[in-house]
Amino acid sequence: MLSVSERTLKLSCLVLLTFITTSTVLLMRYSRTEKVPQHYLPSTAVFLAEVIKVITCVCVLYIEEGYDVEEASATLYHGITDWNETFKLIIPSAMYTLQNNLLFIALSNLDAPTYQVTYQLKILTTAIFSVMLLGRKLKTHQWVSLVLLMIGVALVQIPNDSSKSETHESAKKRGSLFLGLMSVFIASFSSGFAGVYFERLVKFGSHGGGSVPRLSIRNIQMGIFGVLFGAIAMLYSDYYSIRQGGMLQGYNLITWSIIALQAFGGLVIAVTIKYADNILKGFSTSFSIILSSLCSYFLLNDLDLSNNFILGSFLVICATFFYGCKFNYPEKEEVLQQKG
Ligand code: C5P
User: Fold this and answer.
1) Could you list the residue ranges that cross the membrane (predicted)?
2) SS3 at position 156
3) 28 lies in some domain
4) Which ipTM value was assigned to this complex?
5) Whose CA is nearest to atom 19 of ligand 1?
6) Of 28, 145, 166, 216, which sits most exposed with the smallest number of CB within 10 A?
7) Ligand 1 and 269: CB distance under 6 A
8) Element (H, E) at 150
9) Which residue, judged by its Cα, is nearest atom 15 of ligand 1?
10) Residue 152, ligand 1, Cβ within 6 A
């Protein structure tokens, strides 16, 4: 049985994540399609979000150490120079950097709800990697929901009749469907692998046992590489633009809001992974799909609510809930402990 505080923490994570995911997706989509003289460079936003995450985690560490600068510095130093542990964060960090950059490409080419429904494929990749890396066993109803999920995602992609007669303007707005979908597919793979890998490191230690460094340290270890990879990606893709127009070209209040939401959202995801699990993330995105579809339809006028889309989204949402249902099976952690 879950204690009241555990339930509250999980519920808070769910509500917060739903809110953050919905607003991030809508703002990202809006920012990439709004008519402005100059758009901001997404790679700089990804980089700055990583910097903010590291600074925030250092502040959290300072609070955890009772506002003692010396204690906090010593803990930080030992945490970072524990190279064996620090280097283990290279892989998820590199994947998240790639993923965070790809999601901007995806949202430049897909409407917000199509992006979100397709990105639900990460539940499938998360499940597969949970089986492979954490030794989890999926129940029959969970495999069934994964199949439902894939059918739902496929349905959303099938164009309805009205798309045959789409105007030049709407085709332009839609962007490159192929590029958008490929970006989401790769991001889903990355999300599944990096999420499960991180879950393993924060819950069970590096080798499925031993002492587990606290979350703020893990986040700082990962953030160091996040800043490094973010800088490399930024310079690789936008070096000349940055030299000409500066790093903050095209920035406005919306851009800064996206950066803040991405940084804060990343930290909430880290807490969710540590204290709940990756499936809770799937739940929050499902709620978020409903919210962003409604907002996209009423506020951005960015979505044609076709029958395929509605049916596909409905299947994806049902599959997500069905996946999370408990039919008196043993808890996952118990299965893991039995295995260990
Ligand atoms: O879509 P998904 O749930 O995989 O998104 C994960 C997001 O959370 C990424 O943007 C990643 O950078 C962020 N994250 C983080 N710190 C962690 C784990 C994830 O900032 N410890």
Assistant:
1) 12-28, 40-63, 142-158, 178-198, 219-242, 254-273, 280-300, 306-325
2) helix
3) yes
4) 0.98
5) 266
6) 166
7) yes
8) helix 140-157
9) 266
10) no
Work out the widest C-alpha separation in the chain, in whole angstroms.
Answer: 67
Instruction: Confirm or reject: Cβ of 53 under 6 Å from ligand 1.
Output: yes
293 lines ligand 1 (CB under 6 A): no
Residue 156 lies in a domain: yes
Q: What is the pLDDT of residues 228-273, one digit of tens each?
A: 999 999 999 999 999 999 999 999 999 999 999 999 999 999 998 8
Query: Residue 63 falls within a domain, yes or no?
Result: yes
> Ligand 1: distance of its center to the CA of 305 in Å?
29
Q: Percent of the chain scored above 90 by pLDDT?
A: 47
Domain around 289: 4-327
In contact, 46 and 101? CB cutoff 8 Å: yes
Nearest protein CA to atom 13 of ligand 1, as residue: 266
pLDDT category at 281 given cuts 50, 70, 90 is: confident
- pLDDT of 88 above 60: yes
| Length of the chain (residues) | 340
338 domain-assigned: no
Q: How many domains does the chain have?
A: 1
